[in-house]
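Reviewer 2 asked us to include a model.

Predict the structure of this chain.
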Amino acid sequence: MSAPHEAGLGTLAIHAGQPPEAVTGAVMTPVFQTSTYAQPHPGQWPWEYSRTHNPTRSALQSCVAALEGGKHGLAFASGMAAIDTVIRSLSAGDKVICGDDVYGGTYRLFTKEWARFGLQFSFVDLSSSEVEIPEGTRLVWLESPTNPLLKTSDIAAIAQKAHAVGAIVVVDNTFATPIFQRPLLLGADVVVHSTTKYMGGHSDVVGGIVIVNDDALHARLAFLQNACGAVPGPWDCFLTMRGIKTLQVRMERHQSNALALVDWLRGHPQVSRVHYPGFGGMVSFVLDADIDAAVRFVKATRLFTLAESLGGVESLIELPAIMTHASIPAAVRKSIGLDDGLIRLSVGIEDLADLRGDLEGAFAAAKG
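Predicted model (structure tokens):
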């Protein structure tokens, strides 16, 4: 007998965790807009309370877990709530190695909040092949690609080094999505997403998710999910699942547009440096000019909306040093090569010629 066929990612995005609803046969998972559930006997229940369980949320969790090749999914009200919950699983005195180029909100949470409770954070370049994970490390946190310099890490090599000293590896896979990278299959222990971004894909819902394989780790994180209560509502879960159904086709278009713009930007006389990992829809570049020119550039676009966030069908543009990464001290930004004039693009799925024309107008505006 032949082995069962493993469904592709495009199929999993549409069907995983979402069979037709048992009572009515509804093709789309219903929005279970309820806070509590009848119990057949005191303390006995298939569903208890919607902070603890909700059928719509369960469907989302199962879907994303399948996409990542994982066993368990836990959804949260935001990407930061997901990150916070993973860090809550640690204890005072635990040592964390974190990539030196991470989202400003992650850096802020680690250094301004959790460091106050005795966690020890060290920020290193995890894209370097020479990186070492010292004895006593409890957790390694990395983004690949990083935000906003788009550096990539050898996840398998880092996982091997981390496991050798008893550390677990957490990968924020928001930028790559499981379409381009599945960290659990490379040896990572935990995958985190801001589902606000590419998963939802339409800039209309905020959320986060954590994916794990280990049963004990899942039990610990599920306890925290319920105890702390930063869970998404069923409508948020429904909207995220609706977005995920087109994840694969959207990511293909995001990438094709980004690749074409990168080729053009690398040859543009006003661009001094382009950051692009070779895949995905995120691009960063630096103008061969001062910060004032960069400000004029981002204010001049019309299709690239000046806004924080990323991963929606529409194109966005921002200055990380002033916007998403403003919480990182200027000296730290400088030390990792995050220029004040670095421009980050979230390349959408609009027509390529229109996107390029929009940027051409911004280049003209940047000249003053």
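The mean pLDDT is 96. The chain has two domains: 9-244, 247-366. We have added this to the supplementary material.
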